[in-house]
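queue> pop job 88
queue> type: inverse folding (structure -> sequence)
queue> payload:
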């Protein structure tokens, strides 16, 4: 179930960042026509992805810690670990690393946008 959740999260991050980069094709074309380097476009799209991933990670950590405390109150077994920092840190780092990889694919595609094609688009 954890692997399925990870796959769904990655597909979601990729989809959102890819859609956002596609919506900004004209803007990216104008930036490149005005002299922006491909590395600048890469940073622009990656920054959008990092913002989304960072917000999701922070919100997810807060909610998961709260949920662990609620579930601990519901479980009647005595030896339930309240908070495992190693597990939380490991999952957070894994999800963040894979999400940044998912952000890199649309960013790399946006880097290769031809300014003339982008400006004629629509």
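queue> result:
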């Amino acid at each position: 179930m954890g692997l399925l959740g990870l796959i769904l999260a990655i597909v979601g991050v990729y989809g959102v960042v890819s859609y956002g980069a596609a919506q900004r094709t004209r803007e990216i074309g104008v930036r490149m026509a005005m002299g922006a380097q491909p590395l600048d476009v890469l940073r622009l799209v990656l920054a959008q992805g990092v913002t989304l991933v960072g917000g999701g990670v922070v919100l997810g950590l807060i909610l998961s810690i709260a949920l662990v405390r609620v579930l601990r109150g519901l479980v009647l077994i005595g030896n339930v670990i309240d908070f495992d920092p190693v597990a939380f840190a490991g999952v957070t780092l894994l999800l963040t690393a894979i999400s940044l990889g998912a952000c890199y694919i649309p960013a790399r595609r946006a880097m290769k946008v031809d300014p003339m094609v982008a400006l004629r688009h629509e």
